[in-house]
Amino acid sequence: MKILECKITNLILNETHFIIVCDKKKIKSDVIDGSINISIETNEGEEVGYTYLEKNDIIKIIYKIENKEYIIPKKIYTNTKYDFLSEDSEIL
């Protein structure tokens, strides 16, 4: 497996693909039955959705397949941005 760390410059979602445009390379994942076929986790191991990714985020991509245009990722790691309150937490 190879690892690439890069900064997101744009995010593109259409009916067939989710494309992350980074400063070093483009990352492409298939959309299957409305779901993105990729695992995205925080550095703490919490699984998050693609909406967690934002422009200018620094991400780490684990991948095996690469061609001239795209990297096909196995897993993406991103920094934790938010502290989530559990259902047991009280909001004051």
Short note summarizing the structure:
By secondary structure, this protein is mainly β. 0% of the residues lie in helices and 55% in strands. It has a single domain, classed as OB fold (Dihydrolipoamide Acetyltransferase, E2P) (Beta Barrel), CATH 2.40.50.
Provide structural commentary.
By secondary structure, the chain is mostly beta strands. It contains no helices and eight strands. The chain has one domain (2-78): OB fold (Dihydrolipoamide Acetyltransferase, E2P) (Beta Barrel). A hairpin with a 3-residue loop joins strand 1 and strand 2. 11% of the residues are buried. The mean pLDDT is 88.
Write the topology of this structure.
Layout: E1 2-13, E2 17-22, E3 26-32, E4 35-36, E5 39-42, E6 47-48, E7 58-66, E8 70-78
Parallel strand pairs: 3-8, 5-8
Antiparallel strand pairs: 1-2, 1-7, 2-3, 3-4, 5-6, 7-8
Tally of discrete structural domains? 1
Named CATH topology = OB fold (Dihydrolipoamide Acetyltransferase, E2P)
- Percent helix range: under 10%
DSSP summary: helix tally: 0
Report Rg.
14 Å
What profile does the largest beta sheet have? Answer: 5 strands, mixed, barrel
Helix/strand structural class: mainly beta
Report the mean per-residue pLDDT as an integer: 88
Query: How big a fraction of the residues is strand?
Result: over 45%
Tell me what the CATH architecture is.
Beta Barrel
Topology pattern, helix = H, strand = E: EEEEEEEE
Strands, count: 8
